[in-house]
Amino acid sequence: MSAPPAPRLGYAPWGEDLAELTAAGRAAEEAGADTLWASELHRSATVTAAALACATSAARIGTAVALAFTRSPMICALEIMDLDELSGGRAVLGLGTGVRRLNEDWHGVPFDHPSQRLRETVDCVRTFIARCADGEPFEAGGPLASLRVRGYRRPRPVRTRVPLHLAAAGPLTFRLAGEIADGWIGHELGSRDHLRNTVLPALHTGLTAAGRKPEDLEVVASVCVSVHPDPAEALRRAAGNVGFYASVRTYAPLFAAHGLQEPQRRVAEEFRRPGARAGALAAAVDPAMTRALTLCGTREQVAEFLTGYAGTADSLKLTVPVHGLTSHEIRESQAHVLDLIRELRP
């Protein structure tokens, strides 16, 4: 029996400004990255993705992720169709719910029944992309996210179905991704064991419920990678990202699933202290948390570990740690990861 194929490598480029970020995207494409992913926190995912599309020619361009509820389904569909046209058919729409505080406090949008709202949003986006060029009335969605379009016609899109991936971090959304999505995108904190023992069975439950096959779903495992010649320094640099997510209540089940509820609780307590910032919690992070949820070490150590995803993930979305680090440290980490992609390219 032949060995399972190694997962394709994608990368989420970093830059202090868009010029630096797109330069990193070009370098990642040249190194062999299959997909370039644009996140949504400090920048708009779709605008960042557009900049990457203009700077590259071959890699897929994906949002990982665009927040599903902070833009209307129609705007979401328009943006991904524009991106697909701009990139010559290379776009991947990655949608995620975000967390309650982000939606309600930062964006002022509802967060009730997020799994059902996400299901209805996906229906709206897909229906719009498929029907917007025929000029006929159409409706989609449900009580939480709806679309009713009449008197509208858009020039025919590059594709009438753009790949739509869902970021999922819990049982309901795992199953939803398996049921309706073209792909699943993992959280950047996680482990191979969690993917194998928790995520994949839930994805397969959704696939089975919808009468779909495993090959109908791209499994994109996200990995926060910290590469440095000194393993201790690699571990230190990744701790800030762990602390950032440990301060958010929504991610408590992720830490609990790895037996890390007590060290996660201590980080959350530290965050509640006056003046504490989520991005500066590295000192409160137990090294066991960082070892369990990120991938740290020398280039040789990390390369060996990444090969272990063969047979469980179709592709990997690599990120570098950023929280609590200087720009110089992030640039150095990024350079190490680009070298790693170049080394592991098929």
UniProtKB/TrEMBL annotation:
InterPro entries for this protein: F420-G6PD/mer, Luciferase-like_dom, Luciferase-like_sf
Record carries keyword 4Fe-4S: no
Any Pfam family hit: Bac_luciferase
CDD domains according to UniProt: Tetrahydromethanopterin_reductase
Sorted UniProt keywords: Oxidoreductase
Domain Luciferase-like: 12-312
Entries under Gene3D superfamilies matching the protein: Luciferase-like domain
The protein, known as: LLM class flavin-dependent oxidoreductase
Organism encoding this protein: Streptomyces poriferorum
